[in-house]
Amino acid sequence: MKTNKKPVLIAISLALILFALNSCKSDTISEPSPLGPSSIAVILNLTASPNAIIAGPYERQMATITATLKKYDGIPLVGQTVLFKIDSPRGSLGYFEDKLDFLTKTTDANGTVQTSYYGPLYNELGREMTIYIRATVAWEGSQFISDKTPIYVIRSDE
Fold this sequence. Notes:
Oligomer: single chain
Order of helices and strands: HEEEEEEEEE
Number of strands: 9
CATH topology: Immunoglobulin-like
CATH class: Mainly Beta
Number of domains: 1
Shape: rod-shaped
CATH architecture: Sandwich
Distance between the termini: 113 Å
């Protein structure tokens, strides 16, 4: 008995052609992983220099607060408004420029903004403590980005 191999070869050839055509397709948009990294991640970095100051009887020491706002890949975000706020256990201790408890500034071409914080005086503190400066950037919808940096305040009557 002779079998006709032609239909089997045609079926195998069609299957290979369909497989090859289907494997050549690619999606131009790929779904991101829910575990990250996110392609829209934004990083807010906040620092204080110096991060320890002295609360003396007559003069307020100053610390420079620097906030840097960048995308995940290091590209700076220009023209974003950053809200600075003093966050301490005893309410607002010290102040920013122009004697303000909170202040807003806009990021520059490097995604950076700086402000000055003037610490408390000796008689405004009962003990040494850590004061936090918080920076917040409003984002899309109800989302926001926030960071805080500590400033340790040493009480000295000299």
